[in-house]
Amino acid sequence: xxxxxxxxxxxxxFVIALFIGCQxxxxxxxxxxxxxxxxxxxxxxxxxxxxxxxxxGLDHTTAIYTSQTDNSFEEVGSFLADKIKxxxxxxxxxxxxxxxxxxxxxxxxxxxxxxLEGPEAYQLxxxxxxxxxxxxxxxxAFRGVQTLRQLIPETSNDTLAEMPLWPIPTGKxxxxxxxxxxxxxxxxxxxxxxxxxxxxxxxLLAYYKINVLHLHLTDDQGWRIEIKxxxxxxxxxxxxxxxxxxxxxxxxxxxxxIVAYAQxxxxxxxxxxxxxxxxxxxxxxxxxxxxxxxxxxxxxxxKVGFSTFDTRKDTVYTFIDDVVREISAITPGPYFHIxxxxxxVTKKNDYNFFVNKVExxxxxxxxxxxxxxxxxxxxxxxxxxxxxxxxxxxxMEASRKGMRVIISPAKKAYLDMEYDTLSKHGLxxxxxxxxxxxxxxxxxxxAGIPKENILGVEAPLWSETISNIDELEYLAFxxxxxxxxxxxxxxxxxxxxxxxxxxxxQAPYMERMDVKFYPSKLIDWKESRFTYKSIQKD
Length: 538
Ligand code: TNX
Prior knowledge:
Chitobiase, domain 2; six-stranded mixed beta sheet; binds ligand TNX
């Protein structure tokens, strides 16, 4: 008996042959004005674009086919079909042999081409009657699908209102990321954000090819992830937040739901349990953990640096072992973030002793440790990673130890910094970061770390001053779109004047997604119902 999965590629070949055979008879000759693929508003900017000045007409006679070597390419095809449906209302068939009249096709193909370097690379060949998206892996195909989504105009060619059609410029794109790690962080500890808020943020980030969401799950003001062996962490430590509102937490089931949602968008979740400082909420829940000599009480303010675990107590390490074990078991990604920042009331020796012990616990559960740049002062393994936020000296020290570094300088990459003195939300202890300042710098050379030691770029969003999704979006957008380009596109392909125009054209997408972005007056927003003036009024 012949296995049906073996037959699938042949079915597909048959479909393609049939399709090509039908072309000459069926194709309506549609004449489009000349296009220029290299002038499209793509963010992040692809590595290479070669325009051929014609157009592919996306309409109801377009069908999607994918490689069927495994399910993952078909899933990427269905993801594209869903997004096309919500943007254009066209319902395209995916891998249907009986798709009805098929004039044009989008083929998402698993390819071994030598031109494809790395798992996230892709090629897009757009011609008048077909779009071929090649990638070695479904991850690469997913990145390519984001490019394709951005090439579909927000509105159809309305001269053909009866049979609406969305022209896509023809040409070739070859693309791959500059950095493998392209992230944002969300602080759900200072203010809690719901599963739906996090999912919306994931959707928006994935559209710009960001592949990491780091969740800052614990801090002085709140513990936001269920730990079954230490239930009071969330019962007590999750009960409030900055300003005294009710707080909240993710059950492990909810966390798994977020992880799965991110995974479907080829995004990794990195959990952070911040320690030995930033641990007031844990110590209120279990005072035995406390090492600052005071009776811990729930904290709803915004000061930092006053809490610490007792680094010389065995129970503390039993606790950490349980926490790392439970969270690692539901986190498929390779990383576990231990925080390690601003432990101002932990003695230096105790701090180094602590970080070293926790590194071993993280490794015991099969994860690589990440810590804020202070961890570089401890004696660490070169497989551990430092996240540069404040001290270039620490970042250099990490790099000298052979560790890789994530570039997140507060002065340039902190999404919680105010845009300017008129900002409605945010802090400005590090800097004011207007939209141009956020973009005009180079992660490759900012801290003098050799490029091979840079893992990537991350833009953290701390939540002392934001408590709902609208406020989150105000600080994150549009700046995070710039960080996506700083981490995906090469230095030669980045240019503020050029980016600014492409950014202006993100307004229709953000509006369709109901993103309450900050309409910076540095940008000449296109077709935006928000103008700078109207925002100023409220
Ligand atoms: C510094 S960045 C912190 C956070 C604050 C943030 C506010 C870092 C590792 N620590 O605890 O939320 O500043 O901008």
